[in-house]
Amino acid sequence: MKKIITIGREYCSGGNSIGKLVAGILNVPFYDKEIIDMAAEQSGLSPDYIKQNDQSLNSSWLYTMLLGASYAAPGTSAARLGMGAQAQSLPLADQVFNAQRNVIVELAKKGPCVLVGRCSDYILRHCEEINRKDILNVFIYAPLAKKVEYAIKHKGHDPQTAEKEVKLVDKRRANHYNTFTERTWGKRDHYDLLIDSSLAGFEGTAQIIADIARR
């Protein structure tokens, strides 16, 4: 059985919902947004900052210099850094990525679980403490029309701009993944299973993933 399932996903393809269903079927913990709070605690960065920039960060010294320490949580060592000291530390984007990486590895080491997004497939593939044979890397996608429909019905997007927003989020996710992994987001070579969630619906897709994990 595959003990750890990572789920990469296009925006509004149902990755979060499907991940929860898979975790429920297999009776294992599920982690998505929870990783943000854990990473914020480890890094000392504001949870709001991480949420605002989650999976859409670009690693850049200029980006860090412009932000300064204004997004660090009050009272933390990061918040007390001046611009001179800040320049000697990692860029904020890298701090966030490293914090999320540490959380993902810790969660995987604890035992079976479902992890959504945040380059978890790449992180665990390169973690010597995790057996590659225990991991099932999944990428969930859907036709653009289906994603736009979902964005309007369930995310509250304006029908006039929904398609643009869906494309923008996917572009940001791709840029984030490609920047930190030097691989291509959604490319079939990097995953064990790629599946169109519109074919079997969220529940059907979750069952397929769970069945494959069990086998």
Could you give a short description of this structure?
The protein has helices at residues 15-26, 34-43, 47-53, 61-67, 83-87, 92-110, 120-125, 144-154, 162-181, 197-214; strands spanning 4-9, 30-31, 113-116, 135-141, 193-196. The chain is of the alpha/beta class and 215 residues long.
Structure description:
By secondary structure, this protein is an alpha/beta fold. The chain is 53% helix and 11% strand. It contains ten helices and five strands, in the order E-H-E-H-H-H-H-H-E-H-E-H-H-E-H. A five-stranded parallel beta sheet has the order 2-3-1-4-5, with helices on both faces. Helix 1 (15-26) packs parallel to helix 10, helix 2 (34-43) packs across helix 6 and helix 8 crosses helix 9. The longest helix has 20 residues, at 162-181. Mean pLDDT is 85; it is low at 58-88.
Strand portion, in percent? 5-15%
- Poorly predicted regions are 58-88
Secondary structure tally, helices: 10
Distance between the termini: 6 Å
- Percent helix, as a range, is 40-55%
* Main sheet record: 5 strands, parallel
Series of H and E elements: EHEHHHHHEHEHHEH
> Radius of gyration from the CA trace?
18 Å
User: What number is the mean pLDDT?
Assistant: 85
Strand order of the largest sheet: 2-3-1-4-5
What class would the helix/strand composition place it in?
A: alpha/beta
What is the subunit organization of this protein?
single chain
Broad shape:
globular
- By DSSP, the count of extended strands is 5
